[in-house]
Design goal:
The protein has 372 residues and is α+β, with helices and mostly antiparallel strands. The chain is 35% helix and 21% strand.
């Protein structure tokens, strides 16, 4: 448990008038307690839930069954509470009442972290509480990273950059997309907690798909561009990187598209400072591409927040007016995509600071041209 983080959560609860907060999103449970669910990307049903957290002004409880109870004792600043299995809304409601008290009060819950059936049954089980949706409370806290969180993200990104250097030495003509993706996956599992998302590996024309699943049959050919997008996990926090490799010397069009994307990215990075909006940062890239008559080939937003989740707030997209603040961590990843030819994307991850930003992505942005 990070004292600074839980202090911020408690302050936010007080401001919202909450006596307690039931945390069920597995990533938010980790955020407040340090406990990591095995199925941390899933909304977990009460009848097989791994962890819940109950935050109060003077205590922090982890609710779990016998599978995790011994391990839950290791999380500093928390108290493990055993719940019977298979559990139910009635069982969990009873435990919450035991810890919070019988009297009427206001308790926050996460709409997006509960199955609807469980939420309905929980409210029936504890009707004396006023249950208040409070998803935004934790989401807002997670947007601004603490110094400790930033350090974990730096480590995740450093491992991610090392993985790219490894793949640049590994990749060869004749390999399949799936083979390269598996090598990335193996490297990240060996050197970190694993991958923050399934690696995107696209050769040639498949690079026109911004999000793409690697093929087990498509092989890398001489003269093709390879688009590689992946990230590690370190201490629960994600890395994210996209780089391009050319098998041989890049031709004129490959170089032209690459340079357009690089120029847009560098312009956006230069514009990052406290007080600008995420939509205006997206506009830097979009307006540059418009000036070069290629904006229709920029088919996604310029970036996204990264933390315990690979995609979280803030979002660098059109019409998003989030104001950039120190401690925000996000990607800058413009790209251009041409059906039948391929695509180019260059992605760095940055930490917003008091004066601008810290680019924590150390992998070179030079187009890698490998001899074949």
């Amino acid at each position: 448990m990070d004292a600074q983080r839980i202090g911020r959560v408690r302050n936010a609860m007080k401001a919202a008038g909450l006596r307690a907060m039931l945390v069920s999103n597995p990533k938010n449970v980790r955020y407040v307690t340090g406990a990591r669910a095995m199925m941390f990307d899933m909304v977990q049903p009460f009848n097989d839930v791994e962890y819940l957290a109950l935050v109060q002004p003077d205590r922090l409880d982890i609710l779990c069954d016998g599978r995790y109870f011994a391990g839950a004792k290791s999380y500093q600043g928390t108290t493990p509470q055993l719940i019977e299995t298979p559990s139910s809304a009635a069982v969990i409601g009873k435990k919450v009442k035991e810890l919070v008290g019988e009297s009427k009060c206001t308790v926050g819950f996460e709409q997006e972290g509960l199955i609807h059936r469980d939420a309905v049954e929980l409210f029936k089980a504890v009707p004396e509480y006023e249950w208040i949706p409070a998803d935004d409370l934790l989401a807002r806290q997670r947007v601004i990273k603490t110094a400790a969180e930033c350090e974990l993200i730096r480590q995740a990104q450093a491992i991610t950059c090392e993985a790219f250097n490894h793949i640049a030495d590994y990749i060869q003509v004749g390999m399949t997309e799936a083979q390269v993706a598996a090598e990335i996956d193996d490297y990240l599992r060996e050197h970190s907690e694993g991958n923050s998302f399934h690696p995107i590996v696209a050769f040639g024309a498949t690079g026109a798909n911004a999000h793409y699943t690697a093929s087990a049959t498509r092989k890398l050919e001489k003269g093709q561009l390879a688009l590689l997008d992946f990230g590690s996990i370190y201490g629960g926090y994600c890395g994210d990187l996209t780089r391009m490799i050319c098998m041989g010397k890049a031709d004129a069009r490959q170089r032209e598209v690459y340079d357009l994307v690089l120029h847009a990215q560098m312009a956006c990075l230069a514009a990052i400072k406290p007080g600008v909006t995420t939509g205006s940062l997206d506009a830097v890239c979009r307006d540059y591409f418009k000036s070069k008559n290629c904006a229709e080939h920029f088919i996604h937003g310029t970036g996204h927040g990264v933390g315990l989740a690979i995609h979280e707030d803030p979002r660098l997209k059109q019409k998003f007016e989030t104001v950039v603040e120190p401690g925000m961590v996000f990607t800058v990843e413009p790209g251009l995509y041409y059906e039948g030819w391929g695509g180019v994307r260059i992605e760095d991850m940055v930490i917003a600071t008091e004066t601008g930003h810290e680019n924590i992505t150390k992998a070179s942005k030079e187009l890698v041209e490998l001899p074949v």
